[in-house]
RNA sequence: GCGGGUAUAGCUCAAUUGGAUAGAGCAUCGGUCUACGAAACCGAAGGUUCCAGGUUCGAAUCCUGGUACCCGCGCCA
């Protein structure tokens, strides 16, 4: 299936043109060219019309003819009906198409419905989106921010296309690290009923540190003939670490065996951690809650069956005591079981893939995880293919996709830290965003002419929150995901430029305009007499294709770019075309254009998980 | 050492996946408000798309070889 097929919308002039050229190509060159892409594109230059067909050059090459001659034949054969003016040939064989204005008006009227022209997918299978991925006993940090908001945005886009989406928060809620914290808290006699997340976070780090031996350091010290004092120090550290690990291992065994007290304490850790997570998700306007939790503990009984499957089918081998899966095209295998019999991250991920594809029946599993784990997912996906979990039970092909994203950096281009050098928590970052947003909104509300003037503090705060959070989310989603970016609140919160607040402003401005008009007639004919109206209409018509494109490419920045272009085009229209002061029919037509633009902006921002307040 | 990513205007980023004259936003300079919200608009200036080859009607995009920075590389998750 080609991308062009999946992005076409009935009633959209572009798909009609595409179909017409497809027929023309078959008529001239025969049925073996039925699959040839007519390469209909929006023009980059208005002098070239609205659309161009770029197929003649490539096809001419294939059949050994001159491109311009073939383009001539295409012009003779193509039947665009009354969609467009007669097309023209330019350059090496481009065919330029200019739509008739009434065609555009009719298409816009057709798009002006609740669905905004977005066509639903007819695929009934669910899609799993793996996002957020928090660890129990740890604070959320900025690394979780991207996974969460990107994953949520992708989920919304897929849902908008009518797909059933299962958001899964693959919690780190099981295994040795958790047992280590539990052991440490119990040894310290901590009152778990009064436990705070900050205390828990500290305990986690201390537990990690106490169990971390310095085997490498000891080896290096011996090699470098370090002094006996240093070596003794390292040896003590190592034996302490061994002790800590073995105590944690005992705790884990007891937990696995269902020790009542331990299980109760374990649940307490989860509660303390997750309460803060839910708060953050709520603040972020992300559609997730307890129902999305499916962590490592869920898969704990699925790990051994994964090993059994690989062993029974001879898909793995033992290497230095560990169980590994080999790949044909690379040296390093994937470890799925440790020498000591323990399972690994990869084992848990394989269990999740098995569950998602074989139990849930998902035909697409999307992992929104840091780009640094690219190799890991390549291994795990290939292992899943070896295990034949890349097909659903009924034989449908499964797409396993890793959506890698870059890191958030500080002004020094190094991973974001606080001024004191500790890792920045997500909570503090978000509260800064809300605070900045509120400050900006409050400042604008000072002006007596502002629609927010006189609003109470709660009203200002609600808008400020939407603006601050929207600024952070838009900045995160608006450039290519794999790139690292520098976190710069000043730039994100700016109300001018390609930012969230700019789009929110464009939306709010239309809201007050429509409110002032008061008499929108949803059945009034759309008339596109001014060129700015025509341009705006053409941009509006692209929306369904953009949504489809993002659903396929999983690249939210394309939607951001589109929305910015729409807001920009609207500004041009708004500047050139009076709405409220226009004559009856023109006024009604323009009000419909305003209303449609407003709804596309609200819908598009909604797909990004960004609120669109009616005033700000 | 091996593997992956990135490199585009002074800065931050796009470029419909090989199409026409590489576009936006900041910043700079100039012009628009007795107002449909100036949080906006119009215009100017700004480019060896990291370098060198190659493929073809056509390359920021594909291929080969380099350079710089970032990341990953078996019993952690």
Could you name the key traits of this structure?
alpha/beta, Rossmann fold, four-stranded antiparallel β-sheet, 4 domains, 53% helix, four-stranded parallel β-sheet, 616 residues, Gyrase A, domain 2
The share of residues in helices is 40-55%
Beta-strand content estimate: 5-15%
CATH class of the largest domain: Mainly Alpha
Average of pLDDT? 91
Number of helices: 22
State the low-pLDDT regions, or none.
Answer: 1-8
For the record, give the distance between the C-alpha atoms at the N and C termini, rounded to a whole number.
Answer: 44 Å
Q: Classify the fold: give the CATH topology of the largest domain.
A: Isoleucyl-tRNA Synthetase, Domain 1
Q: What can be said about the biggest beta sheet?
A: 4 strands, antiparallel
The shape is globular
Counting DSSP E segments of at least 2 residues, the number of strands comes to 13
State the fourth-level CATH superfamily of the largest domain. Isoleucyl-tRNA Synthetase, Domain 1
Rg from Cα: 29 Å
**Structural class of the secondary elements?**
alpha/beta
Give the total of domains.
Answer: 4
Side by side, the strands of the main sheet go: 1-2-4-3
| Second rung of CATH, namely the architecture of the largest domain | Orthogonal Bundle
């Amino acid at each position: 299936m080609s991308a062009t097929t999946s992005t076409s919308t009935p009633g959209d002039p572009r798909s009609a043109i595409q179909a017409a050229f497809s027929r023309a190509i078959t008529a001239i060159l025969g049925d073996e060219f039925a699959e040839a892409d007519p390469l209909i594109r929006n023009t980059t230059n208005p002098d070239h019309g609205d659309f161009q067909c770029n197929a003649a050059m490539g096809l001419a090459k294939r059949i050994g003819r001159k491109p311009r001659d073939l383009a001539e034949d295409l012009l003779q054969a193509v039947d665009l009906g009354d969609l467009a003016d007669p097309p023209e040939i330019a350059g090496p064989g481009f065919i330029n198409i200019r739509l008739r204005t009434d065609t555009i008006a009719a298409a816009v009227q057709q798009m002006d419905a609740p669905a905004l022209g977005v066509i639903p997918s007819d695929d009934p299978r669910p899609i799993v989106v793996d996002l957020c991925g928090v660890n129990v006993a740890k604070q959320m940090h900025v690394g979780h921010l991207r996974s969460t908001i990107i994953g949520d945005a992708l989920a919304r886009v897929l849902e908008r296309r009518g797909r059933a989406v299962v958001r899964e928060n693959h919690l780190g809620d099981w295994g040795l690290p958790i047992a280590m914290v539990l052991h440490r808290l119990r040894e310290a006699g901590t009152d778990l009923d009064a436990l705070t997340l900050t205390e828990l976070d500290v305990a986690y780090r201390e537990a990690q540190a106490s169990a971390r031996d310095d085997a490498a350091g000891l080896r290096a010290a011996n090699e470098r003939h370090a002094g006996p004092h240093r070596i003794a120090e390292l040896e003590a550290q190592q034996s302490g670490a061994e002790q800590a690990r073995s105590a944690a291992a005992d705790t884990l065994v007891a937990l696995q065996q269902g020790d009542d007290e331990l299980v109760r304490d374990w649940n307490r850790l989860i509660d303390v951690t997750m309460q803060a997570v839910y708060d953050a998700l709520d603040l972020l306007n992300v559609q997730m809650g307890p129902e999305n939790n499916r962590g490592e503990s869920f898969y704990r009984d699925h790990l051994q069956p994964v090993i059994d499957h690989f062993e029974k089918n001879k898909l793995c081998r033992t290497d230095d005591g560990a169980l590994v899966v080999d790949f044909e095209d690379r040296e390093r295998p994937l470890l799925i079981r440790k020498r000591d019999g323990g399972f690994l991250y990869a084992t848990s991920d394989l269990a999740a893939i098995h569950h998602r594809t074989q139990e849930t029946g998902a035909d697409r599993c999307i992992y929104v995880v840091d780009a640094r784990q690219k190799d890991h997912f390549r291994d795990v996906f290939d292992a899943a293919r070896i295990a034949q979990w890349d097909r659903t039970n009924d034989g449908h092909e499964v797409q396993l996709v890793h959506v890698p994203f870059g890191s958030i950096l500080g002004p020094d281009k190094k991973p974001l830290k606080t001024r004191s050098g500790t890792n920045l928590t997500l909570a503090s970052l978000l509260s800064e965003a809300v605070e900045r947003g509120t400050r900006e909104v409050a400042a604008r509300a000072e002006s007596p002419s502002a629609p927010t003037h006189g609003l109470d503090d709660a009203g200002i705060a609600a808008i400020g929150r939407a603006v601050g959070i929207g600024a952070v989310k838009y900045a995160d989603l608006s450039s290519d995901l794999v790139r690292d970016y520098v976190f710069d609140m000043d730039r994100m919160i700016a109300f001018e430029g390609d930012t969230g607040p700019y789009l929110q402003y464009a939306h709010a401005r239309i809201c007050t305009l429509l409110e002032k008009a008061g008499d929108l007639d949803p059945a009034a004919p759309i008339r596109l007499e001014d060129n700015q109206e025509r341009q705006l209409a053409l941009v509006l018509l692209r929306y369904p294709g953009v949504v489809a494109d993002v659903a396929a490419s999983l690249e939210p920045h394309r939607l951001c770019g589109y929305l910015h272009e729409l807001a920009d085009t609207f500004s041009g229209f708004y500047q050139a075309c009076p709405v409220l002061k226009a004559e009856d029919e023109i006024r009604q037509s323009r009000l419909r254009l305003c209303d449609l633009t407003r709804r596309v902006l609200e819908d598009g921002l909604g797909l990004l998980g960004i609120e669109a307040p009616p005033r700000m």
